[in-house]
Amino acid sequence: MNFHWTLMFLLLATPACAADGGSGDLLGSWVKLIVALLVVIGIILLLYALSRKGFGFLPAARGGAIKVVEMRSLGPKKGVCLIRVRDEEFLLGLGGDRVELIAPIRRPEQSFSETLEDKMGSPT
Predict the structure, then answer these.
(1) Among candidates 24, 105, 42, 17, which has minimal Cα distance to 69?
(2) Which side of the chain, N or C, has fewer Cβ within a 10 Å radius?
(3) pLDDT in tens, the chain (124 residues)
(4) Closest by alpha carbon to 91, among 113, 63, 110, 82?
(5) Looking at residue 64, what DSSP letter applies?
């Protein structure tokens, strides 16, 4: 919202200042204003494109042994978090000032279809 007021002020103040200065070159002032605005917009778009390509100015998250798989909120300052540490998963309970292990999650060694075939006996 402030940007709109600033832009409106610049658009209205520039012709008034040019008229008071006595130069009478109103068109030149508008051209300078538009060129300066285009330069600023171009710089913003360039920084945005560079940040999308990975040349970010903020430090990126480092790869490590602990990965957050999923987080769910259960209320204000309460939630659960599924994390993976070296191919093992753990379900954590998150409170206002506490983190507790709810349960380790055991991942099946084989897929459901493989388990079903083992239990039913695959036809040969």
Answers:
(1) 105
(2) C
(3) 555 556 666 666 655 554 455 556 888 889 999 999 999 999 999 988 887 777 666 555 567 888 888 899 988 889 999 999 988 889 999 998 999 998 888 776 767 777 777 777 755 5
(4) 82
(5) -
